[in-house]
Design brief:
It is built from 16 helices and three strands. With 287 residues, the protein is mainly alpha-helical. The chain has a three-stranded antiparallel β-sheet. A hairpin with a 4-residue loop joins strand 2 and strand 3 (267-270).
């Protein structure tokens, strides 16, 4: 690490240590309301330091302190401080893969953020958009344009139509930005959902083909792995049959597909009822 960067890191660490002393004084001031109400402001400043230093494990101690019965109720603090707190706690929940909590926390921050604070709303949406995508809620194009979240426009399009090729290209194109914001791993995880969307479309096409077959050959619930491979080949996504079987098994394991895989026949057998559950239902248990 260059000397200048190391010095800056040391200075931030020192600042964090000093703020922790201030925080201790604040929460111990039982009979001084002004000092007690300074606590959340200090917590938010510490969040900023810890996120920049990438010492997120220290954030948990702050959250525990805020949740303690001796800490003033959040309702007593100014709304701006509560919004900032929910924003950072939401980001922490994303890091810990607690996406349901993250959605609730970030939605609170967005709903109560000053309507004139466009930049702050954009920061919140940078995390809320991928979280909601993974839970089956697709943002409108108007919303993405309004807050200049152009890096998500193509990603959302690929997500909706099940285009693995477009999803991979967009992820690569904006990789540095996603890594810097801490959302890259979350978006990478969403690739499984894009595969689910693609295979759902394959199932729909297959069902139509079976229905139109006057000789009654085939079953709509049985999809050959070869057919799944053809859909990937069409998108120029190179995977052999064994890899596709592993992918399908993973989709079944996570609840994105209801059914089972016949390895001997190389066939995916899906449930007659709701073979591709809505993402919101899946996210209750796996996301």
């Amino acid at each position: 690490m260059p000397n200048g960067m190391q010095e800056k890191t040391n200075n931030m660490a020192d600042a964090g240590a000093q703020m922790m002393k201030c925080f201790a004084v604040s929460i111990q001031a039982q009979h001084n309301r002004n000092k007690k109400l300074a606590a959340l402001f200090i917590v938010n400043e510490l969040f900023k330091v810890y996120f920049k230093l990438n010492t997120l494990h220290l954030c948990k101690n702050l959250v525990r302190a805020v949740m303690a019965p001796t800490f003033a109720k959040l309702e007593e603090f100014p709304m701006a401080q509560r919004v900032t707190y929910m924003y950072y706690v939401g980001r922490l929940s994303v890091f810990e893969e607690k996406y349901k909590d993250a959605e609730e926390q970030l939605e609170f921050a967005l709903a109560h953020c000053d309507r004139r604070a466009v930049k702050n709303k954009r920061r919140i949406l940078q995390y809320l958009v991928p979280v909601k995508l993974g839970r089956g809620h697709v943002p409108s194009t108007d919303l993405l344009r309004k807050y200049q979240l152009y890096e998500y426009t193509d990603l959302v399009g690929a997500f909706k139509c099940g285009s693995i090729q477009a999803f991979n290209q967009t992820l690569l194109q904006h990789q540095k930005k996603f890594i810097a914001s801490g959302t890259y791993l979350l978006l990478e995880k969403m690739k499984l959902v894009v595969y689910r969307t693609l295979f759902k479309k394959v199932h729909q096409v297959h069902t139509q083909m079976v229905q139109e077959d006057v000789e009654g050959r085939g079953k709509s619930t049985q999809i050959s792995v070869e057919m799944l491979k053809a859909s990937l080949d069409w998108q120029r996504v190179s995977m052999d049959l064994e890899e596709i079987e592993c992918l399908v098994a993973n989709l079944i394991f996570h609840g994105y597909i209801k059914g089972y895989l016949s390895h001997q026949k190389r066939t995916l057998v899906v449930s007659k009822q709701d073979p591709f559950p809505h993402l919101f239902e899946v996210s209750k248990t796996s996301y």
